[in-house]
Amino acid sequence: MTTIFRQRLFHGLSGQASYTWSHDLDIGSDSNGGGTASQPFNIKADYGNSNWDIRHRFVGVMTYDLPSFKGRNRWVQETLGGWQLNDIVNLQTGMPFNVVLGYNSAGFDQGTTRPSFVHLASAHCSLHNYITGNKTSCIDATAYTLPVAPQTLNSSGGIVAYNYGFGNTSRNTLHGPGFSYDNLSLFKDFGLRERMKIQFRAEALNVFNHPSAANPNSSNGSGNPTLNAASQSSTAVSTSGFGQVIGVQTLPGELSGARSLQLAGKFIF
Questions:
Q1: Which of 49, 86, 138, 218 is least surrounded by Cβ atoms within 10 Å, i.e. has the fewest?
Q2: In a 3-state reduction of DSSP, which class is residue 23?
Q3: pTM summary value
């Protein structure tokens, strides 16, 4: 569902604001993040939020033609007049992520398995976790348990049996931090001939230099929060390194999420 508001050119100002609500479900956008289904004989177990399930998104675009200083001398017109100010604002909620196990609990040699849930899971991951050095996990680890204890031991500690099973946690149940940025630019055309001009462009991507945190345990879009066995004879999970924000989201067309400044010239004919 999309709602759009457009402002046609009025006293040099034009723009557009749009809001989109969406919800996308699928079987597996990337084969459950492990190259194959988590349960080869039960494909429905991977039905859940798609990797690009962004529920809310707002995009605002604005263009303002600064005064041309008509009636002033040519020097004033060429230096101060004819500039165009442009701004693009993007605000969106986070993308989903998987909580997975660091081993295959079903005993298969490929694929990614998930834990079982104890209660409804929650996450509160943000840039604050990244800045403060991830002192605590941003995911409620108490919501998870192993599907089965990896081993059954006798009274003397000997291994009686190896246990295998699938977890019942759904795929992509949690959503990560939102993504926001403001791109500001300033343009001016300098005429050369009747059909030729040079456009000067000064651009600031993420002008306020406020990066957005990436999904927990994800670097450059890859990686998932991973749980391991705290003990081979119990279903308790080990949370070492679990739920840590280790990176930021990259700006579209850029290599990082930090502010990027650039000057450019464009020859138009």
A1: 86
A2: coil
A3: 0.84
- β-pair partners for 186: 85, 202
The two three-digit tokens of residue 36, written as one number: 């194959």
> Which residue range(s) make up the domain with 206?
2-268
160 in Cβ contact with 153 (< 8 Å): yes
Position 13 pLDDT exceeds 90: yes
Using an 8 Å Cβ cutoff, are 181 and 87 in contact? no
Nearest to 22 by CA among 46, 42, 49: 49
In terms of pLDDT, which residue wins out, 176 or 82?
176
Distance of CA 266 to the CA centre of its chain: 32
* Residues pairing with 175 in the sheet: 96
How many domains, in total, are found in the chain? 1
> CB within 8 A of 7, min separation 6: which ones?
13, 14, 15, 16
106: number of Cβ within 10 Å? 17
Q: Determine contact, residues 100/122, Cβ cutoff 8 Å.
A: no
Report the DSSP pairing between strands 83-92 and 179-193.
antiparallel
Side chain identity at residue 7, one-letter code = Q
How does residue 211 score in pLDDT terms, banded at 50, 70 and 90? very high
Q: What separation, in Å, do the N-terminal and C-terminal C-alpha atoms of the chain show?
A: 40
187: left (phi over 0), alpha (psi -120 to 50) or beta: beta
Q: In the prediction, which pLDDT does 111 show?
A: 79
Angle, alpha carbons 120-125-129 (nearest 5°): 140
Q: Could you identify the residue written with the tokens 């991973």?
A: 226
